[in-house]
Design goal:
Layout (H helix, E strand, L loop, with lengths): L1 E5 L8 E5 L10 H7 L8 E6 L3 E2 L2 E7 L9 E9 L8 E9 L2 H8 L3 H5 L19 E4 H4 L2 H4 L2 E7 L8 E7 L4
Antiparallel strand pairs: 1-2, 1-3, 3-10, 4-5, 5-9, 6-7, 6-8
């Protein structure tokens, strides 16, 4: 899970997006990151990344796709949006959730501290305008991987009790230095 950033030509502020890929090292993802956001050209950089291994008491493993996995849960990516008084900004909170379906992932996201405390009056927190609720973005991670990776790999999701929190790496990482 990679937070990409760039200031596109004609823009006044840095833009961001989230990219999901599969590789042994962050540098292995560079060609797919560039293909994901071609308009960024040489201005594309990484602002943060996480090797996803554990989410919601589940181990996430990348396995070669042989036959469809029979799993009761999926890995979802949600981008929550919210507001604070007197701040000219929509704040975002990106989460991963293991649930049986999109509806369950949305319900779980509404239990986060961000959702409960980032909004006021008519400026409510939201998960933007899909599925009958206010939903910013919600995706099954398997569906937003680059096409050549979706064809080759699957995500194996297994309940576990021995969770080791994934490390989140933050900073300004130039692609050519990875």
């Amino acid at each position: 899970m990679v937070v990409l950033g760039c200031t596109l030509e004609g823009r006044h502020t840095e833009q961001h997006d989230v990219f999901f890929g599969i590789g042994q090292h962050l540098r292995d993802l560079v060609p797919d990151m560039k293909a994901f956001w071609p308009e960024a050209k040489d201005k594309l950089h990484v602002d943060g990344y996480r090797e996803v291994n554990f989410v919601d008491d589940h181990r996430i493993r990348v396995v070669e796709k042989k036959a469809p996995l029979q799993q009761g849960a999926q890995l979802f990516f949600l981008n929550l949006g919210g507001y604070k008084p007197d701040e000219m900004e929509e704040f975002h909170y990106k989460i991963l959730s293991v649930q049986k379906d999109i509806g369950a992932s949305i319900r779980a996201s509404k239990q986060t501290t961000f959702f409960k405390h980032t909004g006021f009056g008519e400026a409510t927190s939201h998960v933007d305008d899909k599925y009958g609720v206010d939903v910013d973005d919600v995706h099954a991670v398997k569906d937003i991987l680059p096409a050549h990776l979706k064809d080759k790999y699957a995500l194996e999701i297994t309940p576990v009790t021995d969770i080791v929190p994934d490390q989140i790496h933050l900073g300004y990482f130039q692609l050519h230095k990875l």
